[in-house]
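Annex B, item 7. Sequence and structure tokens for protein A, then protein B.
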Amino acid sequence: MIATLNELAGRVEQVLDGAGDPLDVPAFALAHGTSEYHLRRMFSSLAGMPLSEYVRRRRMTVAAADVVRGGPGNDLLSIAVRHGYGSTEAFGRAFRAVHGAAPGDVRRDGGPLRSQPQLRFRLTVEGSTPMDTRIADRPAFRLIGHATRVPLIHEGVNPHIKEHIESLPPQAHGRLKELGDTDPAGLLQVTDDLAQDAAEGTELTYLHGVAVTAGTPVPDDLDAIEVPPGAWAVFRTSGPHPQALQTAWAATATEWFPSNPWRLRPGPSIVATLERAPDFSTATCELWLPVEPA
């Protein structure tokens, strides 16, 4: 996977240099024996930004050199067209989003510029995170509970999720526990509808609920997510919460997936809390990720 991601970064450079056809991510993934979903999710996890954002930053980094250089063939419209934009307005918006200044101001003042270096992915095993993992084959099931839309936050407590859970009456948690009748067991934190190229701040569906067998009736006041049959990689974590869980989540991308013959498939991500301190400062959790053979 690391070699595939490095080749993908190289293809981005070829496109920017005009030495290759437009980047066809689904075809690239297929040619390298993986799925577009897994490729984009692994790129985002390891790079810290979606592939689409990386391409935009690299394109604006290359374009900035043309803007500063000036001269014949480097008027702003020509630069915009050369870099895939149909107007100076559209190019200007993209340029300002990356560099924080308009192209005309940068041409006049020589800056400010925020360059995006070309990415190089490496697999490092020094200081690796031990991972307690199992593969679980599960029939179809349902996730039922209280759902809301929240922004994606990679580190620390998500205040929007915290607010959603705290807004539920105490009896709601006990009721959900009584409804749950299959694995993953217990109260669950479910994230779903996360785009392949999801940047921090992107909205997703969060469900606080439980798993029930397929066909179980859903109460009118609860939301439901249908989960098809398939394999799941289950990672057990223990320690400070949510730091231990988030560290393990990142390690699935940096260590586990590059070293194991599995890849992500579309579906919700599920966190089951097995044990926790009264103040939730520490917890033992299971992270369930939907996978398929690579």
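Protein B:
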Amino acid sequence: MLNILKSQDLTLPATPEQWLHELQQPTAIEIIGKQSDQWRVISVLIHGNEPSGFYATYNFLKQGLIPETNLSIIISSVRAARHEPLFTHRYMPGEYDLNRRFGIIDCHDRVTELAIQITEYIRTLSPQFIVDLHNTSGQSPAFCVSISSHPSIHKIASLFTKEIVVTQLVIGSLMEQNFNCPITTIECGGSQNDKSHNVALKGLTGLALVHDINDIDANNMDVYNHPVRVRVHAGISLDYGDQADTDVDITLINKIENLNQDVTTAGSHIGWLDRSLTDCLLAINDHGEDIITHLFHIEDGKLLAQRDIKIFMATRRADIAMDDCLFYVVEA
């Protein structure tokens, strides 16, 4: 059940970790702004292992700043974030990933019910915009993901990053829902990186205090279109290493997260496969086509890039890679 708290009723403890323990359930913090008839919405902690938005929320509230409009900050996966060790569980063991349950209305499990409550709550506010703050599973620069390349998205994103990925993939995320306003996801960078926490705080503060998002200068944004999720087939095993592991089907290079930094050129070595490419991996595009052989090929057991590509969200966490995806790819 989504709890609603007024910021003036909060007494924050000494650390964000202590505050997390005080929160008993998903909570929306409402802060009254100068324009009290308008709302802006920030979503944080949809995944329990992505704390930058939560840290930013705590530090923003500590400053006692008055936002330009009313501001609601929704803190979603409190239970998963609190599940020991803190901030390591994407979602509660045995439950659904919250950010795959938005838009579903015919299920009544705990997680889907929360997605419905969050959606209905946001719609009651009719906000000017919505920003969903995340962390990447591996080390990565910050980037924006959106279903639109509207100028308003560029302006919002520019407070966090210079890179925008425009997607039409449907995965059940908050970002895909229609709220009649701009909505975007910000991947702030790796979850263990102080730089990511600073990106989140700086961006959140900028969004809260700006008089009008149209006043934001958003020149020279880099836009990448039509990403695909590179995923493993059911039953395929995965590990990471500096050489092929004969006990698994796929071995990705140990430095896979370095590929998040720049363009991966054609012929670059990604890993090793002991089975055929199509037996191990798939990459479904916007049209429902599997284009894995368009992006990669096998040579002497090595997995190589078929063309110049940009990789996002590569991670060395095998559990997340297997459950969600290895990484996202766009053609460079």
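Comment on protein B: The radius of gyration is 20 Å.
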